[in-house]
Batch of 4 targets.
Target 1
Amino acid sequence: MGKLLLAPMEGLADPLLRDLLTRVGGYDGAVTEFVRVSGSLLPLRTFRRIGPELANGSRTSSGTPMAVQLLGSDPACLAENAARLATLRPAGIDLNFGCPAPTVNRHGGGAMLLADPELLCRIASAVRRAVPAEIPFTAKMRLGVDDTEKTLDCARALEAGGIVNLVVHARTKAERYQPPAHWEWVARIREAVRLPVTANGEVWTVDDHARCRAVSGSADVMLGRGAVADPFLARHIRAGLAGESLPPGREADWQALLPLLAEYWLRVQQRVTAPHAPGRLKMWLALLRRTFPAGEALFQAVRTLRGVDEMTRVLRAHGVPLPLPAA
Ligand SMILES: Cc1cc2nc3c(=O)[nH]c(=O)nc-3n(C[C@H](O)[C@H](O)[C@H](O)COP(=O)(O)O)c2cc1C
């Protein structure tokens, strides 16, 4: 059938959204937002904050295994932190070689490392030595910094470093998040290495998933923004692969989503301070509007709001089942 993984998305797929999306279902695994490693040995609480699922056997509340992602550029420091993380028994340890953020890249981390395949190999080898063999050790890369000149060398370097699975976000750093994703490059990487390769990038619909698998040749696919834009995407992909026909229209899905939006809104207010809460929900709605007409209407209704109470009022007026304040 092939695996479906929920992508790491810093600032978007936080523990709360991971919990909701994996509860809707269809995912074989998820990855945390990146944990930034720069120079020091992080306290255990940092890993636990980014991956509270670690306290639950490294599974989301619905039982989906969750790997923890590390981002850094120093082999020894990454290895030391990976060893510490391993004591918390994560379902996997993943290395980030794809982040295009200038603050991360200035320190030589994320996608900038793709300029130096030899360093990639040293990083992966050092972390491999530090992580017990029974914890799956994986990596996620883009195609390169500005071009695809070193793509295959990077993939081979990571394989030589001992990773057991490679997720390929099929774009260069320079391409950031612009469509298209070059799934054909995933196919080229698959020919260059022996390890399993997971395709990632621009899968928004059931049809995209089928085309991504056909072009990349990868059975396993990681869903990023598409998973947030359509919380039912993984489930519909699974149903389609099982030969079930999809329900017509999206109205039933939107109705099923309303209680999840209510839950998210209530829980996000506990997780972040009041001034930040509306922004978090707006980020989710900004993607949901791609899939659901009612999501577009709701997004437009809340986009200029800043206060928690007015957000709650407007959400309620749009059918989000939020409890009324006690009289
Ligand atoms: C808001 C946001 C945050 C992201 N954070 C991470 C991250 O922490 N680690 C990582 O490896 N990739 C991160 N990514 C990249 C995604 O995991 C994924 O590779 C990318 O979005 C392409 O997939 P998509 O087209 O399905 O969204 C992030 C992407 C977005 C949109």
Note: The chain has two domains: 4-241, 251-317.
Target 2
Amino acid sequence: MRIIDRPELKKLSTLKLGGRGARLYLADSCSDLDELARIWPEIAKGSAFVLGRGSNVLFGDGELDLVLIKWTGRESVKILSENSEGEVFVDVPASLSLPRFLGWCIKKGLSGLEGLAGIPGTVGGAVAMNAGSHGVEIGSRLEKVKAWSPEQGVFWAGKEDMHITYRNFKFRAQSTEKAQPFVPPYFIILGAVLRLGKDDSGVIKKRIATWYERKKNTQPVLQATAGCVFKNPPFSTIAQAQGSAPATNNISAGWLLDQAGLRGKQLGGVGFSALHANFLVNYGQGTSSQALELIELARDKVNKKWGITLEMEVKVVP
Ligand SMILES: Cc1cc2nc3c(=O)[nH]c(=O)nc-3n(C[C@H](O)[C@H](O)[C@H](O)COP(=O)(O)OP(=O)(O)OC[C@H]3O[C@@H](n4cnc5c(N)ncnc54)[C@H](O)[C@@H]3O)c2cc1C
């Protein structure tokens, strides 16, 4: 297995922030996974994090006692079967980048995920986050997941074994060979079987281009960011909000941040984007401490103004 000591975390995150981790394990085969299982007790003594492309991650500054594990297996996408409704089942490796996978979908005339255009993560990271955009969530297309955990080794999970909610994916308790219900605390997604529709390649390409254009016009996709910092609050939270709660159910975290004066707010080299208030941008010389300070400021302001506690979407690691 490839091992990198003291990896530079900013190079592993699209926000380009962070100090150094302790170790990065790059696993790409079953024997690497066996090796990980063998050394897991040692790894689990400190902080461990399964990394995709790092497009939803804020790493801390300084020297961190943090072990990163990344699945880099290089299988190709496989078309498995088609059902009576003309839907096609495809087996997609977790390490494949989502934009590349969408490119493959264009070539094969397979549709359903066009709304995810411009999300820069891996397929594994998209599944782990139930990434979504423009009314599409990858979880709605998920049939099966192939994963690995130190306790179970490699396993397959069907829809009944998954619990998928807004920007969240978990395995449900399932029976292992020992007939024990089990939810792995750590798991690596190795691949996913997705159900896609069929359409004309040109039409799919056009839809992807349209969604990407819309994203580029409303989000700082070409800058160093990690996507939305906060999740959109659930309607129930908004309804219960004290004081001057917004009079609509369609409230995004971006709108709340904007109203609380955070759009364009900068601290040192980091700031909330002027294009989209829920995106933190590293302007080049930022630090994680500045980003965390801004996050706290934003939560505080939104809480004071609306009585809403924003929940993080970006993973702060460790
Ligand atoms: C410009 C920009 C735009 C974005 N737009 C959107 C958007 O519209 N919608 C949206 O949902 N997100 C968006 N994001 C956020 C991000 O791209 C997605 O959450 C993406 O799915 C994360 O994938 P990743 O591979 O980078 O995962 P990482 O950021 O590396 O990790 C994210 C989480 O997934 C877990 N994870 C990653 N890979 C695996 C794996 N193989 N097995 C198990 N767990 C894993 C990590 O442990 C972590 O908890 C955007 C980000 C950027 C920078």
Note: The chain has three domains: 2-71, 78-218, 235-317.
Target 3
Amino acid sequence: MPKVNPTHAADSSVYHNNSSCTERNNIETRNKRDGTGGKTLCSHCARLNREGK
Ligand SMILES: [Zn+2]
């Protein structure tokens, strides 16, 4: 399933690890950073992961 390496936006308090997450896909390239950034997992990603999407 599309679980991917963690990504976060520099100006956000959450990180994303599911490629189906629309918030993840909306991160502007200039704000995109690798890793969790020590942030909490996005609730949308958490739900997608839990549903196996
Ligand atoms: Zn997300």
Note: The chain has a mean pLDDT of 96.
Target 4
Amino acid sequence: MLRYLVNFIFPPRCAGCAIRLPIDAANRVCARCIAEIERLKEPLCEVCGIPMVAGGAWCERCAAAPPHFSRARAITIYGDGGDDAGGVVGSIIRRHKYGLDQSLSRALAECLGARLPLDDRDYDVVIPVPLHRGRLRWRGFNQAAMLGAVVARRIARPLDAATLTRVRATPPQTARNRRERRENMRGAFTVRRPARIANHSVLLVDDVMTTGATADECARMLIRAGARRVDVLTLARVL
Ligand SMILES: [Zn+2]
Ligand SMILES: [Zn+2]
């Protein structure tokens, strides 16, 4: 009843395409947008999760320089730039970046789909990739933390947004090659109170993964601090 009243005053619109939703809609994303989300399909690199031509192995990059995380998976493909990048999810992410609509976390939860692409592996804790405080203020909130909260609720595990912290803002990653990106991230993160993650299996969550340099550096620090395993889940993967 309350939802009906709220929806009557603020007619609900799809968070992806902005089409009007039925006045009694329980979802934030329309069925057509959900169906249009471009999922990553097997075969994928066993480690970093990029699509491969042939299956069952590691991609060249992972074979040449294995990352510190055990496995990275994404919900959808982001595409490469432009206003249409990422399709439905890209549209929602952009609204997260430039708008401050916290209700969109519900839309993100709907985008995750019925099953997370993690082979039902269990984790002890969900940790979001932290933003530097300066950027956190500028954006108003950390969308990785928001997504982390959504994922933690989904798998019924605690969210820990305090143990892994960012101690240094990093220059923009664009126009850098893979090696430069890795070096650029060095020393950007630190683990406070390592005892909290000792021997833990960690699910690291971020909104978008590009080269994986950020996730790799976070995983490096978490493993060094005593985590047993780090897997990565991002909403989108830039290919
Ligand atoms: Zn829609
Ligand atoms: Zn790979």
Note: The mean pLDDT is 84.
